[in-house]
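Students often ask what a 'structure token' actually looks like in practice. Rather than answer in the abstract, let us consider Fructose-1,6-bisphosphatase class 1, a protein of 297 residues. Its sequence is given first.
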Amino acid sequence: MNLQDYLRKQQPAETVCELVSVITGAVATIKSEFLGGDEKTGIFNIYGEEEIKIDKKANQILIDVLSKSGLVSQIASEEEKEILQCNSNRAHFAVTLDPLDGSSLIPTDLAVGTIISIYGNGDVLSGLGEISAAFYILYGPLTLIVFADQKGVSQFVQDKNGVFQLVKEKILIPDGNLYGSGGLRKDWLPGHKKYIETLENEGYKLRYSGSGVADIHQILTYGGVFSYPALQEKPQGKLRLLIEVGPWCYIIEKAGGLGTNGKTRILELTPQKVDERTPVYVGSKNAVRRAAQFLEQ
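Now compare that with the structural description of the same chain:
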């Protein structure tokens, strides 16, 4: 079963299928830009990071197809300072997107990805609990999509004809022993450092590539925990609550896992702005719950 047939079967609203098809239809165009590598623009974004040309191209590709679809009232992108407002009588949805997560890894041929969340109420700042669906596209040895909605999590792999075919459905995250943690160890707070040391002593294996989509996909597949903690100089961590962390936690929780900021479920939070950041612990329930015990010390 291909992605479109799956969505038509799962989603009573034809517009959901249409919206996802619009986004995934841009995959080939985005991939064609990879040969440009990580050429810098000399311009720094709102996060203080130097923009990479391929990020800007991927962003424009997705904004163009979403705007022209007539299905979207708002778009919040990692590459944009403000929420983009779209005018259409058909518009039902709001969309958040990280056009190309991990793009600096392209010259090393490591996996990178696109992160999407969809709000059926048309408001990206209405609260992460209002996410209707979320998915990521992972560009690696395989090009795949992991899609989550109220009915669960499914995985699709692109075939030789460019069509995404269903390979797994009703995915559940196992209790595995992988971990990844962002930030430099010297900058970790004592509670997080003790948590990671405990996992290592219990035989957890480090898996951290610097591409959030790839790292989350490993945790979904094999189990364990991905974290980017509060740091000594960055108490809110590094990752964007609305654009990155919210969609990841939605997908992982629909697969039976858990996502928190160390204290509170991520999906109970309401971002106040597009660039709001948060610490995150996401993965298998037991591993994530244990983090809170150490962070309280």
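One point worth highlighting: The first helix runs from residue 3 to 10. Ask yourself how you might have guessed this from the sequence alone, and why that guess would often be unreliable.
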